[in-house]
Design brief:
Number of domains: 2
Strand content: 5-15%
Order of helices and strands: HEHEEEEHE
CATH architecture of the largest domain: Roll
CATH class of the largest domain: Alpha Beta
Strand order of the largest sheet: 1-6-3-2
Helix content: 25-40%
Shape: elongated
Number of strands: 6
């Protein structure tokens, strides 16, 4: 008994399978891209100026003071008009730094140059979350 394989049907199925795989890969890639880019959602922020979309916000000194790192709140500081999130820096644990003599939620533009032994170099470890306004 001899079996014959119909190559014309196999070729059509193979092309169809390739198209399905290619289309699936394209849809998955676009889904990942849109997810990574936030899906084009508009930026929103809460009443304290904290972003809910990961974009930078504008803070007043009063709003900045709310981010003191206490009771589960994030710890933010401002230097030269830029607001940094120092929450994940161990030296700012609980919103305090330098043995508790410095607290998060404030502008330290002058102190970081005149008092700090490390200066502004350590700020590269903290993500920028916004800017400080003069208002």
């Amino acid at each position: 008994m001899t079996y014959y394989f119909d190559h014309s049907r196999s070729s059509k199925a193979s092309r169809s399978d390739k198209r399905t795989i290619t289309l699936t890969a394209l849809v998955l890639s676009l889904t990942l891209l849109l997810t990574a880019c936030g899906g084009g959602a508009a930026e929103t922020g809460d009443s304290t100026g904290q972003s809910t979309s990961g974009q930078e916000q504008v803070f007043t000194l009063e709003q900045l003071a709310e981010f003191d790192g206490k009771e589960g709140r994030p710890a933010y500081i401002a230097v030269d008009g830029i607001v940094y999130d120092v929450s994940n820096i161990p030296q700012w644990s609980g919103g305090s730094h330098a043995g508790g003599s410095i607290s998060a939620g404030k502008d330290y533009s002058e102190e970081i140059r005149s008092v700090s032994p490390h200066g502004t170099s350590v700020l590269s470890r903290a993500p920028q979350v916004g800017t400080l306004t003069e208002e």
